[in-house]
Design goal:
Radius of gyration: 17 Å
CATH class: Alpha Beta
Largest sheet: 10 strands, mixed
Distance between the termini: 39 Å
Structural class: alpha/beta
Oligomer: single chain
Order of helices and strands: EHEHEHEEHEEEHHEHHE
Length: 245
């Protein structure tokens, strides 16, 4: 099974080596690693070129995260497609193989799992433990961890990629459209798959969280799903973050 992994980058010279090495070290070798760089001004592209496992690399300005994601989707030729951020790494060398096995052993179009949030020192500061999807769950402010989200290419070909009109919540809109609206089959792989570095755009304070909330409401609207804004807000408040002391 061929797995396309898309990594988008911009001035990521401090973290990109670990991310690339994480892909290079995977036991599953049928990997197409695609780098979509936003025109970095530092040594990001130079570091990328040092890895001979990279299948495709483009470096040019983009219109944002989801525009870059879509560029990667257009280049991808794998049976399944996932994303690994430039400052994230796989949980271990068997993560991609476990994802591929889940697709092979189940009749599903989407696989997702758990992840650890880590700080710059590599210490785990929070666990993201997911659950099996049930209809209506996204209305309760749930979504799978995007860095663990793998989907068959044929689903993207049929339903389209990311809505680049969103700044932060485009992955929420895509999950809503795939899982809730189009009822794409999914499988929860109850294993840690990714170590995600804290401090990204979606974790950068109240302003970004308010933007996410407003964009999530817009995602429901454009997908013709009624949601009570107050109830949804309360569900978001009730989400328990599991921190490790």
């Amino acid at each position: 099974m061929k797995v396309s992994i898309i990594t988008i980058t911009y001035n990521a010279e401090n973290t990109i080596f670990n991310s690339l090495n994480s892909v290079f070290s995977q036991s599953h070798k049928n990997i197409e690693h695609i780098i979509v760089d936003g025109g970095s001004k530092d040594n990001t592209v130079k570091i990328c070129k040092e890895f001979n496992h990279i299948s495709k690399l483009i470096s040019e300005p983009d219109k944002g995260v989801y525009d870059a994601f879509n560029k990667g989707l257009k280049l991808a030729t794998g049976d399944i497609i996932g994303f690994l951020n430039a400052d994230d790494v796989f949980f271990n060398e068997n993560s991609v193989q476990e994802i591929a096995n889940a697709f092979s052993n189940t009749e599903t179009d989407i696989v997702y799992g758990n992840l650890d949030y880590v700080n710059k020192e590599g210490k785990v500061v929070r666990n993201w433990i997911s659950k099996s999807y049930e209809k209506g769950l996204i209305k309760k402010a749930w979504m799978p961890a995007h860095p663990t989200f793998y989907c068959k290419k044929e689903v993207y070909d049929q339903l389209g990629g990311y809505n680049d009109g969103f700044k932060i919540a485009g992955d929420f809109e895509l999950c809503l459209r795939f899982l809730e609206v189009n009822k794409v089959s999914s499988y929860y792989l109850n294993k840690k798959l990714v170590k995600m570095l804290v401090g990204g755009i979606s974790n950068s304070g109240f302003k970004s969280k308010w933007t996410i909330y407003k964009e999530e409401l817009r995602a429901f609207k454009i997908n013709n799903i009624f949601i009570n804004p107050l109830s949804f807000f309360l569900f978001k408040l009730k989400k328990i973050k599991q921190y490790i002391s």
